[in-house]
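User: what does the whole thing look like in 3D?
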Amino acid sequence: MTTRLFTTLIGLLLAVALMTALAFGPVPVSLRELGIWSLHWSPMALPELPRHIAIVLGDIRLPRVLMGLMIGASLAMAGAAIQGLFRNPLADPGLIGVSSGAALAALAVIVLGNTVLAGFMATFGFLALPFAAFLGALLVTWVIYSIARMTPGGSQVTTLILAGVAITAFSGAVSGLLTYMADDAELRSFTFWSMGSLASVTWRDLAIAAPWMSVSLIGFPLMAGALNVMLMGESVADHLGIDPNRIRRRVFVLTALAVGAGVSVAGMIGFVGLVVPHLVRLALGPDHRALIPLSGLVGAALLVWADILARLLVAPAELPIGIITALLGGPFFLYLLMRQTTEGIQHD
Amino acid sequence: MINVAQLSLCKGGRRLLDSISFQLTPGEVVAVIGANGAGKSSLLKVVSGEWGLQEGELSYDGEPVQGICKQDLAKRRAVMPQASPMSFPFKAWEVVALGRTPFGLNSPKREHKTALERLELTGTEHLAERHYTALSGGEKQRVQLARVLNQLLSSQAKHRYLFLDECTSSLDPSHQHQVFQRVRALTNEGIGVLAIVHDIHLAAQYADRVLILKDGALLDAGSVKNCLTPQAMVEAFALHTHRLSHPEADWPLLVARKNPLIAPQPVPFKSADVAVG
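Assistant: Here's the predicted 3D structure for the full assembly of 625 residues, as structure tokens:
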């Protein structure tokens, strides 16, 4: 499939998703009303909208859709970049424990913010939560990479996945400990963090998370050429004039920014970074110069659609979006594992 | 000219290289030979700039290597590794196109055209559209050679160098000669070649000079004729050989004797090796 055709298809899918996500919900909005609302900045003379519709669209649905778009894009790009860095198509920020590290750090700030971590809260104020999530994500990324490099097999699937399992289990245990100290409200946010949800996203959340994510959304595509070379190994990258250590540091920081910001606003949303780059690679090949930006586009479309499903399936209640992505991603991951062992797609 | 003086290297408490000095001039092929673990790969890694310089001096055309940034270095020298596995299915020509990384990539169309020209140089243009992951070991090596040539030949630098790390070990005899003839032809364009070679015959036929390493130190260095002797084989490899003369050419032929191995010293039993119970 050509890149142009693929881009057009995904672009259409994303556009339809955006319209559906805005129009659908407990307060029905017609396409005509959506059209009027989306043009209300323009100087055109347009019929007046009912006030409640303008509020639902502008203050509730728009920030939620935009957040989904950004989280989907940055998680998918992070997945593509991490897979390139580890030279392993099964590396995903969720699977290797980065998201759970970020969630644990966020939870620690919520539960311990008044006591142990009061100093941290005072220093960073309203940025304490995303910053903690960023640090948690960065720490786990670094730990996983060190483990992958120390073990003789290098970044073998088993090492990575098992290390991810261990880290996720450990974060889960520490999170469990924290819940004993938590009050009811904090417990609810714990559930929210472990399953992921866009339900409560406001413009304020968007304003806090968007700048961090934008850095990763711009940064990842700039790494594409270097990541292509890194696929041939760190020695060859070095021979071609690219400092592998520098690339590694950059990918870590960008990933931690993307995952940390996403987790601090919407909790753990798994499998986006695994499934999306894989699909794009199947369609267009492994060249990161196309893979990274188009993974972003597909990730955005996927997460907006997943959010629509989360709102639709048990309406008028809502499912956490992490459940939807895990329902799609879990079986897909199993399929990849099977394919990998039967065909040895990456061991030669 | 690459100038190496009193180069030493320690890693993990072991002295891998011990005050090695030599020079590599543009236009010559220098073969590095020596037993396994003699320090050949370490030497290549330090001289090519992949590993940092610990002790001694290393300069490229008079400039100390410490002062050359990675990208500049990549414009002056290329390195052909022993094997290059890859987990993602790039096409062969895309792998070759990556060789131009230090110079900034052109439009995809031009990259494709250049890559095809380089593949032609190694007789692999028919593999261009195949997935690299699906190629045989020998085919991969020849595609990698095309990638390395793409890097070297794209450079405008006055003096260029090529490092080969036992890169022909997975090739059949005729492809080994094909690769070395290609490498030999590069010397006409003023490219200096430092090659780790396991096959003494290949070294004898294609190198101008040899460096013989033993236990991290330089055992001998000089012309092929003077250095490739049965005496050197005994000292470097503990191997008894006959020196024959080539019917057509004047390079030495070293053939293993009927009982070629020098008897190894008996190893005393360590009590830890004996199973208890």
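In plain terms: Chain A touches chain B at residues 84, 87-89, 225, 228-229, 231-233, 235-236, 238-243, 281, 285-287, 345-346, 348 (CB under 8 Å). Chain A has a mean pLDDT of 85.
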